[in-house]
Amino acid sequence: MLPSQSYNTTRYIRTTSFKSESDYFMQFKSESINKLSGLIKGLHHITLVTSNQEVNRRFYTEVLGLKRVKLTVNQDDIYHRHLFYADEKGTTGSAITFFEWPELPKGEIGLGSPHHLAYTVPRIDAIPKWKFWLSSQGVSVEGPFVRGGRISLYLRDPDGVIVEITTPNTDNISSEYIKELEHLAPSVSEITQEMKLTTFDHATPISSDHDLTERFLEKLLGLKSSTRTNPDQEGTTILEIGNEDRSDFLRYIATPSARDGFVGKGNVHHIAMSVEEDEDQLKIMRRLNDTGIGNSGIVDRFWFKSLYFRDPDGNLLEIATKRPGYTADEPLEKLGSKLVLPAWLEPSRQRIEKKLEAQDARSSGEWPPSYPLLKSPPESLQN
Ligand SMILES: [Fe+2]
Ligand SMILES: [Fe+2]
User: Fold this and answer.
1) 271 CA to middle of ligand 2, Å?
2) Which ligand is nearest to the CA of 299?
């Protein structure tokens, strides 16, 4: 078993590399481990760190058009909020969630601290509309670019998180078409239906060892892989990880020269993938235990069950169940409208609310925020 590390969602600032422990992962280079396939269905949610819940709420609901589907606390750090935003129904794979940790320093992208996440829009013509809309809201936006066979825009949220907005798979896009798209300047005064962000397209952790990460995810979770070049940075490759239906819901940026990152404000804390049934999650836990990979065990999060572990570079991954979902304790139309707590925290409600109020009094956020700039090229590790 790996030496003790944090596998739950308490704050965790990465200070040491997992490389010294990589012997544990070398077994995945052996052919003798059987594959476990077909259990992972795609992404479930992605969790990040924000400095201010009000600025965060305004950005993700008013600027990106998502709905807050849960306002609660971090179950491993109960005096700090946990905010969930998703599509109207809280569909699996649409929820971006944030721990509010105002006292944390700004994080740094690197090993253990993923680079960016991407949301899908339903149609290509949503891209110029998004560009117009985001610019009109004062957000600095780069693109469109063709990345991974899709057309993408890139921006940073008020905390500096890199968010990509991308189209469904559109192989064989001509450069003329992109030029045409750039010249369209549709004026939009709201987020229209065809602009709506749907589910995640991919998340992008960083790997220092392409082959080891590939074997780890193939052998441990039965996922499939392929490799593309990264047009944004020489010497790096994109390791695409997916399943039969979706070939690349994880797109690792891989390079032996990747440096350690740490998770702070404006960074991805962990990436959750979904399984259909509780039994599938148990199978994965047994696999982790059999191969000596440290993990959290099954944790009941009330809206789903979670299992946490780290990949060879220390990126925190989670396997989450689809059920019971965000409507387990609130009707659809009321989702996210008030602070909800799992039953075991209800006795502490008063104390929790007091502490949150005190936290709010200490950290005021300005609106509109001054948006951090994104360097181009967007998927470079320099960002
Ligand atoms: Fe991307
Ligand atoms: Fe999670």
Assistant:
1) 7
2) 2
pLDDT in tens, 101-156: 999 999 999 999 999 999 999 998 899 999 999 999 999 999 999 998 899 999 99
Which ligand does the CA of 307 lie closest to? 2
What's the topology of domain 19-362?
Answer: 2,3-Dihydroxybiphenyl 1,2-Dioxygenase; domain 1 (3.10.180)
Q: How far apart are CA 50 and CA 267, in angstroms?
A: 8
* d(C-alpha 374, C-alpha 217), whole Å: 30
d(CA 224, CA 214): 8
Residue ranges per structural domain of the chain = 19-362
Q: How many CB atoms lie within 10 A of CB 295?
A: 21
Q: Which residues surround ligand 1, an ion (CB under 5 A)?
A: 118, 164
How many Å apart are CA 362 and CA 356, to the nearest integer? 10
pLDDT in tens, 53-67: 999 999 999 999 999
How far is the centre of ligand 1, averaged over its atoms, from the C-alpha of 123 (Å)? 17
Tokens, residue 308: 């946490």
Beta strands at 206-207 and 95-100: parallel, antiparallel or unpaired: unpaired
**Cα(132)–Cα(184) distance, rounded to whole angstroms?**
10
